Hints:
Radius of gyration: 23 Å
Strand order of the largest sheet: 11-2-3-12-13
Distance between the termini: 86 Å
Helix content: 25-40%
CATH superfamily: Aminohydrolase, N-terminal nucleophile (Ntn) domain
Number of strands: 13
Amino acid sequence: MNNWSQGSTPQGNGDPSPYEPELGSLPDGNQSDDYGENVNSTGTTTIGITTDEGVVIATDMRASLGGRFVSNKDVQKVEQIHPTGALTLVGSVGGAQSFIRTLRAEVNLYESRRGEPMPIEALATLAGNFARGGPFRAINPILGGVDSEGSHVYSIDPAGGVMADDYTVTGSGMQLAYGLLENEYDDDLSLDEAQTVAARAIKSAVERDTGSGNGVFLAEITDEGVDIQGHNDFDAVI
């Protein structure tokens, strides 16, 4: 008669029971994760501001390796993904680029099936669902857009949380940028004024945050489309 109990080993034998699942070992808690050391990260400061005329999105232009080495000084961290909407890149560059390609494809599919652009709120919900359940690593983008309901800005956290606001900031320089925005933002800002405020907030972050730098990209979003311009010199836009 076999004298085996669940999870035990045979009597007089050090081998595990063949009827139990084989368990692996946990990694040593002292081992370091080198992922961030070798992967391009945007570090970054990204800003979204709503106005009655449209939306302004601003980002810096720096990419780094593990936050220690500047790997690129001219990265466009905001991309058009909708006829009147754009998304920023924050975190892992590869994850963010894949995220943008996926959302852009879904927007095109929605429009081809229904014959109309996807509402920005629906796009934000879809982006949150993808962030929560998809393979995209270390992303925290801003989605900005204009539709029949008006101007919208959403921050999307890595766990899929979607939060709408009049203005928002994500990235490693967010505390520095928020300090200026809290003082400068006004409900009555024009689109041009919002661009100036956003550029000043990016410049404030660049002064102290090592993950942000090298200029600013400004995206102007209206019901007519998306216009994205890069500026290496802040004096041109402040």
